[in-house]
Amino acid sequence: MNRKIILTFTLSLFILVFSPLSSLPPYRLLSQDFPSLKDVEDEVFHGKEMKIRERKSREDSVSKRGDYRSITPEHGDVNDLDSYCDIYLTMKKHGYKGVDFKMVLNDIMNIVEASEDIDGSKSTVSIKLNLSGQNRNLWMEKGILIVSGNKQMTPDESELIRRSLDVFPSEISSSVRAVISMDEKGYDPKGEQSGWTWEDDSGIICINDLDKYHNKNKESYINTFMHETAHVLEHTGFINKQQLAKRDRLWDASEKGTGDFISSYAETSRKEDLAETFARYTSDTIDFYARALMQFNEGKSDILLKKLELISDIYKYTREGKEYTYIYDTTHDGKITKKEIPLKTYKIQSKEYVLPDASSITYTGQAPVFMRRLPKEVIINKELEILQKD
Ligand SMILES: [Zn+2]
């Protein structure tokens, strides 16, 4: 009797004990049914020597910083562009990890940038990767790739990324070199990530599915992109040493659970604090400003206000001897507006703060729930008035 049950039991036990899944690093779980990146490369190159031999190993590329943009020139060849694009297409077909896409797309961009005929090389890539419309223009004009990774990039997603790139000052948008659409299986250590990038200067960002991961919330998708962009700006050195030192001082002085952090995720590390703060500023500066002032005015601390000062300094530029910054607002349906606002030095309780000039801020949107009684710009001016009385 029940030989079937016994057999099933024995079989389950066998699978449980001998399962190869338990002993391998997580990324292999998903990679085992298709060839390794190395095999794909060998296949595409048909035994021909691969020119880019200096590339960091897959594992190195996850944690080491620097040098990504300068690896190629003498190692890659413009004649290999087709082959590298074929590797990318094979990875896309099989749904490889984000880190594999990063390495190959980085090679492609490095070869293009080092080639004598950059426009011709860009055009080759554009045809091979099947870029069209505005994504093609963005690549041809600015050298930024918006492409599908292990999941197809939807028109909505690429539109939101282009809008975000559009509102950045050009030095910031040009720090980003590629944006790859992924689902949660594209991330190595764990699945649950809304977006990710690496601690290197590749300027490559992976972003998780708008419909599934972000529940079709366009504001949240944009916020993720802004967050990852902040990491890129730190790793490429656009955010300078003084600004990072200030970030560190503020991180050290911040107390968890007190309102010193803009979000709970910001409490996890100094890098995440900067990325969250940058993303929130760039999503809704006025909301951030009002919140920071109220925090200060209620006698809590000026840390959030100093974090606002830090981000407005990252956006600072000078025109005709006068300093300006940008402020931003994003709507739920993913429209982003940018305004330039003069910077002004406020003396508050004998300390100086360089902040966006509150008298230049006008706001027509909805005040957040906790301050719905008044428009936000009124709150900012009112709070500043109280603060400046001493
Ligand atoms: Zn982050």
Overview of this structure, please?
This protein has helices at 3-18, 26-31, 37-45, 58-63, 81-94, 98-114, 118-128, 133-142, 155-167, 170-173, 218-235, 241-253, 270-283, 285-297, 303-314, 376-387; strands spanning 145-148, 178-182, 195-196, 204-208, 317-319, 322-330, 336-348, 351-356. It has 16 helices and eight strands. 48% of the residues lie in helices and 12% in strands. The chain has 390 residues and is an alpha/beta fold. It has a four-stranded mixed β-sheet, with helices on both faces. The model is unreliable at 13-32, 56-66 and 369-373 (pLDDT under 50). The protein is elongated and about 70 Å long. The protein folds into two domains: 25-235, no CATH class; 241-387, no CATH class. Strand 3 and strand 4 (204-208) form a beta hairpin. Helix 14 packs antiparallel against helix 15. The structure holds zinc ion.
Overall number of strands:
8
Average pLDDT value?
A: 81
Global structural class: alpha/beta
Give the cofactors and ligands: zinc ion
Q: What's the helix count?
A: 16
Q: How would you describe the shape? A: elongated
Major sheet characteristics? 4 strands, mixed
Helical fraction: 40-55%
Q: Which strands sit side by side, in order, in the main sheet?
A: 1-2-4-3
Which regions are unreliable across 5 or more consecutive residues at pLDDT < 50?
A: 13-32, 56-66, 369-373
- Percent strand: 5-15%
